[in-house]
Amino acid sequence: MRATRRQHLVGTGLVLLGVLMLASPPAWAADPVKIGVLAPLTGVYSIVGDRGVKGVELAAAEINAAGGILGRPVEIIARDDETNPEVALRQVRRLMLQDKVAAVIGPLHGGAAIAVSNETKRSQVLQFPFAAVEDLTTVNCQPFLWRITASASQTARGGAELAKRLGLTSWATISSDFSYGRSVANYFVEHLKDINPSVTIVTQAWPKLGEEDFGAYINEIIKSQAKGLYVGLFAADLVRFVKQAKAFGLLDRMTVLFDSGGSHEVLKTLGDDAPFGHWASERYNFLASSSEVNRKFVEAFNKKYNLYPDMIVYDGYASLKFFAAAAEKAKSVEPRKVAAALAGLRLETPKGVVWLRPEDHQAVQPTIWGKVQKAAPYTFPILTDFVIVPAERVTLPLDRSGQGCR
Amino acid sequence: MDAWFWAAQVLNGIAIGIILFLVAAGLTLLLGVMGMLNLAHGAFYMVGAYALYSVFASGVAGWYGLGFLAVIAATALVGALLERFALRPLYDRPPGYILLATFALVLIFDDLVLLIWGRAYKSVPPPAPFEGALQLGTVPFPAYYALIILVGVLLTLALWLLLQRTAFGRLIRALATDREMVAALGVNVSRSLRMVYVLSAVLAGIGGAMAAPLRSISSGMGVEVVIQSFVVVVIGGLGSIWGAFIGALILGQFSALGILLVPRFAVAIPYLVLVMILIWRPYGLFGTRV
Amino acid sequence: MSAEALRSPLAAARPDAWGAWREAAGALRGVLLFVALAAFVPVVFTDAYHLRLATEVLINALLATSLNLLVGYGGMVSLGHAAFFGVGAYTSGLLLLRAEQPVLVSMAAGVVMSAVLAWVIGAFCVRTAEVYFAMLTLAFGQLLFVVAYYWVGLTRGDDGLVGIPAGRLAIPGVARLDLGDPVAFYFFTLVVVGAGMAVCRIVVGSSFGMSLRGLRENRQRVAFVGGDVARLRLRVFVLAGTIAGLAGGVYAPFQGFVSPEILYWTRSGEILLATVLGGIYSFWGPPVGAGLMLMLKDALLAYTERWKLALGLALLLIVLFLPGGLIGYLEAKVGDVRQRRRRS
């Protein structure tokens, strides 16, 4: 069968593409310090990944403006992990083996982060995950993984402290049925029962990750007549849940605490449908601190991107700042030396003073809770009436953390 | 009273089922008439939702009604273009090629919406009179779900009328039975096939727009819906609109009640139902052996 | 045509005993050539990244070939094939990680598990046809995904199995390989994949393979001449699932990590796409397609965030303008050249 001209064109194009594929991206000069960012840049969590990358890039711009790390400019290489562990592994190998990065910031997805941590441990490259799964600093703790992001236990335990303060006696929880989601609800319940034994947990709902219709769960929760509800849902699932909860009138029947509900992007999306009057946490909130460092950070981000920083922006920003500070302290970007400098490092961040605990490599920090309100001059819902739960109350005791690093 | 609780759940399930039906109806038409496994069907669901959002975001009054006009226009246009340029050339090839093409289209659309509308999640509220909840005894039931059920039933009737009582409907049924004969009778088959494709796209888009006010709008939102609709179509039997209707309602009920009865196993229900029904009826509930 | 052939075209196609061996040897020529070429890859690409990519290409090539036994030769479009790959990977991974079994034992167990599951699932599926078959395979695949995702005690759920060791391979008297070394693992994979491809190639060239093709062309006719359609389909289903399990078995130590995503229907869809892309009507189409898909996606991911759009467009163009898949196009080009030579 003779091939037509059209087919020739496509075929030739493919051959050229094939040649292109075998060639690697151009090798940069040995001078810059390369930092890889692994985050979802496509798909349903792409908004989170995008913001995370922007946070890292802002930090890089500031570091470079101040002379770089040990006199060398910082270069950011962002790669999409599609929220898929397989892809994340392939991409992190590219970052480590081809791009030769000194550190990897990310990924966001818990399973991907755990898989990647195995590779970074093997290749001895620093990793600052976005993921909040507890395992990364407990059983999967390893010498090169250091986490700035607040862990699942920190936020949930902070929620339990707030729950106790609110004095409600019966609670329900709803959280996605996967590793991270389960841990959020479990840490909340466990800590609440610990500090307030008279509390009863009347029902627990476990919708699947990506659930579209929460009606049955909402009805169950209303039927249980709980006084308080702890919501571990996040991102798109949370948007759906809040809208449906509102339509069912659940928000009028009980006090609700949203573990990730303070997310700026989520509140912006919900707009007038936001859960006003209820409590929400954000691992970092741009209004929670009036410090100079925070004010400058928010202003700089706003100026560069015309956006307000969501919690993931802070995670990316602070992670790179910690790396830079540790590298300066160690006078080297060699991962083992930087890791040694990271242990016990204290830094003032837009969130306040944050300290990296040497035993489990987790940043010790307070948990931020606030009430969802509308307030000028902001056109989107914000958090006010902040309740900052101190770090000592929310941090996991050492006998339960850092097992992998012992 | 407990009876109200279960009644509310059943109604929930019906609302979910209606949305599923709207998406599945188009799919079963495509499969019945053209034998096409259209993975890109979910893309129309997504486009419908985004189109409604655009109208809402423009701030115009009566956005909900106007939005649906926009949805129909947008999905019809996109559907017609896709059919003509990306799918028609592949009709004579083995079905794997259409599958491949529609998969490619899903990739393209998932990225296009990000380019056009940006990454942030989008949300539309239920239209003003339907924001709150009705009371069924002591149990709340969202007014918007009631609207979905009402509109959905009307649309189903309209679709039935279209297929049974109009010339176009007769044409579709004829095409499903014997395409060659229809062509022999002098009908412009390719134009008719395109109209079937457009109809299926519009139905999916309407489904997406109707679901949007109580869900979120994001890239890739069509992927899960497509699989659920395939399950519905297969359960109901390829090409059977009534089959799709019954199948969608069954699945909706199983979802709503399943969550309450077997909470952690509810995820497996659609697939178990599919397997069981196909064991009992290998061509689906109302499908016929081709 | 002889009277015998009329009675049973399948019987007429069956060659004599020696002929069977000759057939097999001829068929293997292609596989041996493939293995020989692939053996040169570590010479050209010496860095770890490309070696690992090449290993992944080999595994995907075997997976696509196994699927094509169903699609290209049997005419059965399966949307649940990744499930067998996943079962092989999980079995192999669990034995390597938890029971600290040697790699060959773990892989063998993976093969056995996927064979058994393919037999059970196949028994349900092969009686249905076309879209129903596709959806049934998808449903079973999703059920296996649900098991992997929610049976946390066994599989660790969405966290996945981490830290699967590649271990050592000791063949007494022959070699002692540390499979942690990318080069060693590449050659190990090459041997495994080569063996798998050889099995597929022999089957395809045999009378069984011919019966399959008959099945693809016209099922009714096969039933008419006395072929047991359901049994034929079940056999090829089990074989395809087993080979997929082999690919999965070597995937676990390769990646060092197994998570439920590899069982999800979109993964099955990707394998199917790679198969169709390469060309389902030839044996070498799917492996080439698998390699192409992987490298295409890898390259696009490296260059642009808009890789989905780029990949989608590339695939669409290929589908629209290259009817025989990539192999078909290449064959056509070769045909062109041959025709021109003959004329001149």
Would you write up a description of this structure?
The complex is a heterotrimer of chains A (406), B (290) and C (344). With 406 residues, chain A is α/β, with parallel strands linked by helices. Chain A contains 13 helices and 14 strands. Chain A has two domains: 30-150 and 289-363, Rossmann fold (3-Layer(aba) Sandwich); 153-281, 3-Layer(aba) Sandwich (Rossmann fold), CATH 3.40.50. In chain A, strand 8 (255-258), helix 9 (264-270) and strand 9 form a beta-alpha-beta unit. The mean pLDDT of chain A is 92. The longest helix of chain B is centred in the first third of the chain and has 33 residues, at 2-34. Chain B is 72% helix and 3% strand. Chain B is mainly α and 290 residues long. Chain B has one domain: ABC transporter involved in vitamin B12 uptake, BtuC, CATH 1.10.3470. Chain B has helices spanning 2-34, 41-57, 63-87, 95-117, 143-165, 167-177, 179-184, 189-211, 222-236, 241-261, 269-280; strands spanning 133-136, 139-142. The N and C termini of chain B lie far apart (49 Å). In chain B, strands 1-2 form a two-stranded antiparallel ribbon. The relative contact order of chain B is 0.20. A two-stranded antiparallel sheet of chain C has the order 1-4. Chain C has a two-stranded antiparallel ribbon with strand order 2-3. With 344 residues, chain C is mainly α. The A-B interface holds A 42-44, 46-47, 50, 177, 205-208, 210, 212-213, 215-217, 219-220, 222-223, 235-236, 239-240, 243-244, 246-250, 265-266, 268-273 and B 5, 8-9, 12, 15-16, 110-111, 114, 119-123, 125-126, 131-133, 139-145, 211, 213-216, 218-221, 224, 255-257, 259-260, 263-264, 266-267.
Number of helices of chain A: 13
Q: Classify the fold: give the CATH topology of the largest domain in chain A.
A: Rossmann fold
Largest sheet of chain C: 2 strands, antiparallel
Q: State the share of residues found in helices of chain C, binned by percent.
A: over 70%
Largest sheet, spatial ordering of strands of chain C: 1-4
Tell me the major beta sheet of chain A.
Answer: 7 strands, mixed
Can you count the beta strands of chain A? 14
Largest interface: A-C, 44 and 46 residues
Task: Trace the largest sheet of chain A across and list its strands.
Answer: 6-5-7-8-9-13-14
What would you say the CATH architecture of the largest domain in chain A is? 3-Layer(aba) Sandwich
List the domain count of chain A as a whole number: 2
**Count of structural domains of chain C:** 1
Write the H/E string of chain A, N to C. HEHEHEHEHEHEHEHEHEHHHEEEEEH
Percentage of residues in strands of chain C: under 5%
Oligomeric grouping of the chains: heterotrimer
